[in-house]
Specification:
Elements (H helix, E strand, L loop, with lengths): L1 H10 L2 H12 L13 H25 L7 H22 L8 H7 L6 H34 L5 H36 L2 H25 L6 H4 L5 H6 L1 H13 L7 H28 L26 H16 L1 H21 L1 H4 L5 E2 L2 H22 L8 H6 L5 H27 L3 E2 L1 H22 L19 H26 L3 H28 L22 E5 L2 E5 L2
Parallel strand pairs: 1-2
Antiparallel strand pairs: 3-4
């Protein structure tokens, strides 16, 4: 079997294989990476998180089987989860499928046809989607096929095929719809307007996917789907389209809901045709224009007024950081990802309170959601700041490092407060307008500000760098341990803190003690960071430079030619 697979792979043209591997590893911008970044390990950790989620859901379905009347709810949940993952992937890899300047400059002089580049990019995107689809459903899909099908082997096999067909169709539909939207915009808009549209569309897509996932109503049976009162929801939501498609393939869809399954078929066909036509036209007509594509969105002409934000160093770094977030697609997408998660969690927690006609009292849901918003805002900004805006230009910052390190760290603290704590505080204040009494809301905002200041000091620990100037090294951190640890810690701490604060808001002495404790903890960390900053040294590369530079080939392996390729083998 391995020999047969090798023979099949060998029949694929070599340019396609090389390009496919490179495009698959370019999920993260290579210009931002450290020289020893491990992208395959990063992708493996991402897949491991999805695999573990599916495994837990599959084990839960087998040991605690749901009743048959919950079949539609489970199907809708699986489709919603898959569409959310595909939507986030499509936005994070927004420009990965379309030609860029690097493709033209590197491949334009080689005997490689544009159709080969197009097929390699589409295949790489398809491989990433397939990895996410299999990782998220490998165990849960099999378990539900056994539990929800009635027990017979034939019905289980049919449900299994229907489940995977609908999951794959929904993924292709959403990804194709995003590609079609991008392609149409690239064809009809000038390059500068297209870059501005991409910035707005990416942020809007993040918010849309998260809001729909958390706020969309869930129907519990096929009978409710056929209710005329729910026709607008069923007809407008792709989740219900492909749930109907699953039941149609499984043979359990009532005749009165066939129109919903037909809408799924029509949407899939339109998305495929639109994405295919947009990609082909972009590669034929806009690929040469990509040579002039700038790394940053061009600024508008005219007079610009930039007030001073303190000293010259503080003003320079703060404006550099704010313009990096505003004009760089890479940083904007990552920052929007964290904010979309926090706002979606907040809307989910406050769904009932925001829809009330009469202002309600301050509940634990409001406290939990605002605490989570602050956590995601501060640590999301910290994770964005480790990505460089232009790694090749870091020599300018090294040459102009004329101030003591503690001044740079003080500016970084101001940046986290300005772009992390204050926006989260404003969002919490806006959400608190629907709550009463206002005195408790104001006290909570004071507690939230001090909590944000404490998180800023935590984020500054071991952050010996200027924001947006240090290379990124994916795979260095165990993403699975960090992800599950953060989920457990945030869930536990937010619940405990909100319950304690809700009780303390009724007692002025407890409020004073809580504020004093936050001030004390923040002050201690501030002193620690200030003392550490005096002896710290700024760095711009995640990996320390070696005394003797190597090519990274001393890994105990050798290369042997097999046909036109090189294969790595053990010595």
């Amino acid at each position: 079997m391995p020999k047969l697979l090798e023979q099949l792979i060998a029949r694929i043209p070599l340019p396609f294989r090389v390009l496919f591997r490179q495009f698959l590893l370019r999920v993260i911008d290579l210009e931002a990476l450290s020289i020893e970044a491990d992208v395959p390990r990063f992708l493996g950790q991402f897949a491991g998180i999805l695999i573990l989620i599916s495994g837990m859901r599959g084990v839960g379905a087998l040991f605690f089987p749901p009743p048959p009347e919950m079949a539609l709810t489970i199907e809708l949940s699986a489709l919603s989860n898959m569409l959310l993952v595909v939507g986030l992937i499509s936005v994070v890899t927004w420009d990965a499928t379309f030609p860029d300047r690097r493709d033209v400059l590197a491949l334009g002089h080689l005997p490689v046809k544009p159709i080969t580049i197009l097929l390699a990019k589409v295949s790489a995107s398809g491989a990433l989607l397939g990895l996410a689809m299999i990782g998220l459903n490998w165990a849960s899909g099999s378990a539900w096929s056994i539990v929800l099908s009635g027990g017979s082997m034939l019905s289980s096999a049919r449900f299994f095929l229907a489940f995977w067909f609908s999951i794959g169709s929904a993924s292709v539909f959403l990804y194709g719809a995003v590609l079609a939207l991008q392609g149409i915009a690239a064809l009809i808009l000038p390059r500068k307007l297209f870059l501005q549209f991409s910035a707005i569309a990416q942020l809007a897509a993040f918010g849309l996917f998260m809001a729909v996932y958390f706020l969309e109503p869930t129907l519990e049976s096929l009978g409710q789907m056929g209710d005329p009162a729910n026709r607008w929801l069923v007809g407008a939501s792709p989740v219900y389209w492909f749930a109907a498609l699953l039941n149609q393939v499984n043979g359990t869809l009532p005749d009165e809901l066939m129109w919903v399954a037909e809408r799924a078929w029509e949407g899939l066909a339109i998305a495929l045709l639109g994405a295919g036509a947009a990609l082909v036209l972009c590669y034929l007509h806009t690929m040469k224009k990509s040579v002039e594509e700038p790394d940053l969105v061009p600024g508008s002409a005219g007079m610009h007024w930039a007030p001073r934000l303190g000293g010259s160093l503080r003003t320079a770094i703060l404006y550099f950081s704010m313009r990096s977030l505003k004009r760089s697609r890479q940083h904007r997408v990552v920052f929007a990802f964290y904010w979309s998660i926090s706002l979606a969690l907040a809307l989910n927690c406050l769904h009932g309170e925001l829809g009330a006609t009469v202002p309600g009292e301050v509940l634990s849901e409001f406290l939990i959601s605002t605490l989570l918003i602050m956590v995601f805002a501060v640590f999301g900004l910290r994770n964005v700041c480790v990505l460089p805006i232009s790694l090749n230009a870091n020599w300018v910052l090294r040459l102009t490092q004329l101030r003591p390190p503690e001044e740079y760290f003080a500016v970084t603290r101001s940046l986290f407060l300005l772009l992390g704590v204050i926006p989260a505080l404003l969002v919490a204040g806006a959400l608190g307008l629907w709550l009463r009494p206002w005195s408790q809301v104001i006290i909570h905002l004071a507690v939230l500000f001090l909590f944000g200041a404490f998180l800023v000091e935590v984020a500054l620990l071991k952050f010996d760098k200027v924001p947006f100037t240090c290379s990124y090294m994916p795979g260095k951190t165990n993403m699975q341990a960090v992800f599950w640890g953060a989920v457990f810690a945030l869930s536990l701490l937010s619940i405990v803190a909100s319950l304690y604060e809700q009780q303390a808001l009724r007692d002025p002495w407890q409020v004073a003690g809580m504020l004093a404790s936050e001030c004390g903890a923040t002050g201690i960390l501030w002193v620690i960071n200030r003392r550490r900053a005096k002896g710290a040294q700024l760095y711009f590369e995640e990996v320390a430079p070696e005394v003797i530079l190597t090519l990274g080939l001393a890994d105990g392996m050798r290369y042997e030619p097999i046909g036109p390729d090189l294969q790595k083998t053990q010595p």
